[in-house]
Each structure stands twice: as C-alpha cells, then as structure tokens.
Specification:
Blueprint: E1 8-17, H1 22-35, E2 62-68, H2 74-83, H3 91-94, H4 96-104, E3 106-108, H5 119-136, E4 139-146, H6 161-171, E5 176-178, H7 191-196, E6 200-203, H8 210-223, E7 227-237, H9 239-245, H10 248-266, E8 274-278, E9 285-295, E10 301-311, H11 312-332, E11 337-338, H12 357-373
Parallel strand pairs: 1-2, 1-4, 2-3, 4-5, 5-6, 6-11, 7-8
Antiparallel strand pairs: 7-9, 9-10
Length: about 400
Amino acid sequence: MSAEPSVSPSRVGVWLIGARGSVATTAVAGCAAVTAGLHPPTGMVTETGAFHRAGLPSLPSLVFGGHDVVDCPLPKRAESLAAGGVLPHDLPSAVAAELAAADREISIGGPLPGDTRTEDELIEALAQDIRDFTRRGGLARTVVVNVASTEPVPEGDALPASSLYAAAALRAGCPYVNFTPSAGLHHPRLAPAAASSGLPYAGRDGKTGQTLLRSVLGPMFAQRALAVRAWSGTNLLGGGDGAALADPAAAAAKNAGKERVLADTLGTVPEGETHIDDVPSLGDWKTAWDHIAFDGFLGTRMVLQTTWQGCDSSLAAPLILDLARLVARAHELGLSGPLAELGFYFKDPVGEGPAALGEQYAHLIGFAERLRQLAPPPGPGTGPAVPEGVAGEHR
C-alpha cells in the first residue's frame, strides 16, 4: 500500500466547476503565466499593495482541478482561446505543462443524461472526487469555485446541478464560491447545511462588465440627486455563455442580478429592460450597451449612453484567482458563513453590505486589514470538520 502524501501548508487546491470552460481555462493559464513572469497580474486586486502581508496563498501554491461534463482537454481549449484572441497566441505552448497537469485532475461531473443515481449518491460521488484531489496533492485545503454555465431558476424541490456541486463542496469540507447566477448554495434546502458547516462561502454572479459599470453609475446619479427615468440595456455575446443564455429562463436568472444592482443603488427600479442576445460569431467577446434617461434641474431631460466591449473570460479569470486566495485565507483563519466583505466581486452578494462599488471596495480593503490582524492558525489540518448529511445521510 502506498503511503499517504504529506500535507503541505503552502499548497492550496482550486476546484473549478466547469473546469474546461473558457473562464476556467483562462484562470489556469493566467495563473501559470503570471507565476512564470510571462505577464503581469493585471486585473488581480489581491496583487495590489492593500493585500500585502494579508497572508494570502501565493499564486505558485495554487493547484487546479475540477469537474466538467465535456472532454475537450485544457491544452486544446487554450489553443482555441488563443485562436480567438482571448489568450496571447504563444501562451498555450508556454504553459502547456501546467494546463496538462490541471487537466489530469478534472473528473467527470453530473448528473449526466440517463443518470439514475439519487441526489445523495451524486453528492457523495462529487464530494469524493474533491476529497481525492485534496489528498493526492497533499493540499492544506481546497476552495470550490463554480464557473459553469448559467442555469435557469430552479422550480420545485429538486436540487439543480449547481446545488449538487455546492452540497458536495460542503460535504467535502471545502469553502465555496459561486461566480455564476445559478442557485448553488442559495437553494433553500441547502441553507441549514451552509449555516452549520462552519465553512466560509461567497457569491454570487461575478461582476465583470455591464453590471460593474452600473454599480458605479447608479450611485453617481443618486449622489448628484439626478432622477433616473429609464435604464435599458442590451448584451450581445457568443461562446458558451451566449448559447446558455439563449434560454430565456437562464437569461432571466442572469438579468435579475443586473436589475438588483440598479434597485439597490438608485433606491428605486427605473423603467426599461435588459436584453441578452446570442451572437455565436462573437465567440468569447461581448458588447453591452446601456441607455440611461434622466432628469436634471428644472426637469431638463438628458441621456447617457455607454458601450462596454470586452472579453468575459479575461475579465473574470483574475477575479477567480482573487476569490480563491481570499476564501482560502478566510478558511485558514477559521472564518465561517457568508463573506459579505467580498461583495465587491458580485452582482448579488451574500450577506449584508453596500451595493455601490466604491463602498464595496472600502469593505474589501477592510477585509484585507482584518486578515492581516488575525492570528495565524496553529497548523495544517485544523480547519472545520467535514459536514455530513447534506441533502441526505453521508455514508
């Protein structure tokens, strides 16, 4: 029998749900590129001065794995992204070894078509994959991050796939981040397990483009006492997100967070809607327009129009690395429950906190200071116990 690998307090797992998608591939390739000094950590807030000496795990210490239901290897996926201009053309070959290593740690997720396993059996199988990954790598801890395609809002009592993965993270004793608008830990059936798990978690729905801008402009109108009459938006996007959001139910789940930011920052819900259109030829690129009608002094009617053009994967990937490091550090220090201080990263943040980006940033910087001040833990292996009985008995 082979010996169990020793646990390294410096190695941290990042388990990605949707591990072969564009965002996950960009995060893995980007982490390797920054670690090797090939590119600067542009877009990574945790690499700014405010987070120095906060005790975050280093980028070289991150070990990647995950679940996915597709079989395209990460090196091949990276080549496709480079062909589309998402990654530098020479990057896939430069970090081929790191991509291949992460790809070897990807397990088939579920539920698959025709899957006859019960919810509890699925959760246990997914949790065991995460435990095995953590054990094989001798990792101090593993953070589970959901970057899979958006699901429709669930109906009925059954757990959707995102919630099965979230339940598996809890059962494996892992902190959890939901970077998507899917239910994840928000499902009512998981609330008791999340509350009793002793684990930190964050989410949901990463704020990368149009809503990032809205969380800046909304407070501007409110603070200048300008009355917003209508706020309409359109998103054109391709790739996996475009295909997933072509489903009206999935698009409705996505738009809910966009509209919530306006309601929270303006104090009211203006007229207008946000539309999402799938344009396959755009690939991983997107264009977002906003048309804002507002009243000035003496009722003078005015309009602000904005255009945001960007690549969602390259906008999201540095945030994934930020969140994995922040949540891992929180777990190391024994913090638990919703990490409201990370609302800066999300459209629909867990916990209580402000909606305006500036205030959210101040809370994030306060969190960095809190991490600096907290005493380090006694040593590895002292994190919260593995919870049992999530969505059924743990066998």
